[in-house]
Structure formats: structure tokens, C-alpha cells
Amino acid sequence: MEHSQDDDYWQEISPQCYLQHVDLPMFHIGGWFDTYLRGTLRLYKDMAERSQYRQQLLVGPWAHLPWSRKVGAVDYGLEAVSPVDEMQVRWFDLFLKGLDTGLEAESPIRWFEMGANMWHTLPIISKSNQKSYFLSSTGLASIREDSGMLSESCPESYASDVFVHDPWRPVPALGGHAVVPAGSFERSQIDCRTDVLTYTTAPLVTDLHLAGEVMAEIWCSADTPSHDLCAVVSEVHPNGSVYNLTQGYIHVPSGQDRPLKMSLQATCVCIRKGNALRLSLSAACFPAYPMNPGTGSPLGSTRLMDAQVVTLRVECGGDRASRLLLPVVDLG
């Protein structure tokens, strides 16, 4: 908790320091709601670039465990039943017994597309087409669902939204990859809170396929020495239900006059025609992440009774355009 930033402390104990001298065939397995997915993808990319051996990557609609067709409140169907056992037998027959299992003739990457509920095979992880969706608002995005909008065009006029984080009533965590149970849950009751800003697209006129890393650049400031920012991307259905897809979280010092760049968990999902996409912003995601007391002191060193109420401002439009960058792809 004394090292809430990615500093030298973490670099010195990172597995990357030791694995850079290792070259072996590796079978990398992860899930879109897996706590360790970022490390899995990072290691696969590193090994695929430099290894003389085959690297296999499988990512399904799972948490870290179990690998089942249902995660959270969503059942992804029979196609989502884990193929890991069969693939592991083929993998070990190939590399431990020297048997030709046909594995080397297949594409090394296999991803499950949620929403479409089907598997895709890929030869490489390509740099996705990062498409920008800009935030705009009437200034009431913490109160009205129709105030905050996401659109492909950058708004010319400037606007801002203000919301208040109360450390004795933090925004709760629900699903995602950082709590148990993990996965996708109906979260409309959280988005209705006044300490959550929501920005929503119009209903989609065509299916939207996302596959890869999600980023957000948010102009956000606070009236305390430090603050946190949580970003959740969700799918909104015509009946008003909202299901989370991916999220990110950062702990930052205040007083920075630049957009906060957030890396959200990678995902692979199809947003169906008629549904909408939503970005929800808050200053807490408790207890998935320790609550920031707003004092600027190291996390865990401030008594709860000394924590500060934080007023935050998110800006959008004009020369302070906040945006969500999505990995839009054509998966065919």
C-alpha cells in the first residue's frame, strides 16, 4: 500500500526480470474477468516476439477460476464450456511425448467473443483500431441518464460535471475482474447514484465488435491532495438493464493539468444492434480497491475519521476533450 504507483519497487520484483532469460513452449490461459489477465497477455506478447518455441494463448469468458459457461450473472452458452482439458492433453502430448496432435497447424490464439458467444482464432494479436468516443454533457451527468453522452464526434463547446465522493459511503464494487464474485452483473442501481457520472451512446445501428485493450483519457481534478478515479464500460439494454464489460482504476495526486490516462482490462465482446455503450466514472470501487482518504498520505496511514469528502470535476469538450478509446475490430 506504500507503493500505489508502478515504481521501482514493483519493477524489481516483477516476474519479467526473471522470465526474460527463459525460452520454453508455453500455454497461456486467461479469462476476460481474470484478475491476472494483464500479466497473461503481457507475457504472451513478450514470448511470442522472441521465443523459438510455440506460444499458445486461450482467453475465455471466465474469471481466474472456475472455467465455466457462466460468470457473474451471465450465461455465455454451451460454446463457452472450457476446452482447456482437451487442449492441455494435446499440448503435453506434443511437447512431452513428441506426438503430432495437429496443434502446430492451428492458429496460436483462441479468443471467446462475449455477446456473439463464439470462439475466434487469430494468428497474432494485432494493434487494434483505437476508435475514440468523446464525452459530452449538459452538466448533470451525475443526476440524469440523458445528460452524459458518448459520441464519435468531439463536442466543440466545453462542459463539466461535478460529483462528490463521501468516504463513509463509497461507490461499491460489483463484478469485473477485481472482486469475488467476478464477472458481469446488472449494475443500473449503482449508475443511479449521484456520486457516479454516466455517459451513454445512442442505441447502436449496427453490431459493434471490440477485441483488445480499452483506454480512457479523462480530464479530472479534485479539491484534495489526491483522489482516485474508476472507469467502468458497460452494455445498456433497451429495457434499462446495464451489464459491466471491463473496468480500470487509478490513484493519482491532484493538481495535474492534463488528462488522466487509464488502462482498462482487455476484452472481446459484441455489442448488439439496438443496445448502447456506457462509461461510468466514480471516485471509488470499494472494497476492490482501498479507499483513498483524500489526504495525500500513503494508503492505509489515515484513520477513517480523518478521511476527507472529495469534490471532483470531469471536463469534456473544447480543448479539454475527455474520451474513451475502444479497440473496434471486424471479426467477421
From TrEMBL:
Q: Which Pfam families match?
A: Peptidase_S15 (PF02129), PepX_C (PF08530)
Q: Is Hydrolase there in the keyword field? A: yes
Single GO MF descriptor: dipeptidyl-peptidase activity
Keywords of this entry:
Hydrolase
Protein name (record):
Xaa-Pro dipeptidyl-peptidase C-terminal domain-containing protein
> Which residues belong to any copy of the Xaa-Pro dipeptidyl-peptidase C-terminal domain?
89-325
Look up the domain of life of the source.
Bacteria
Taxonomic placement:
Bacteria, Bacillati, Cyanobacteriota, Cyanophyceae, Chroococcidiopsidales
Q: Please give the coiled-coil regions recorded for this protein.
A: none
SUPFAM superfamilies listed in its UniProt record = alpha/beta-Hydrolases, Galactose-binding domain-like
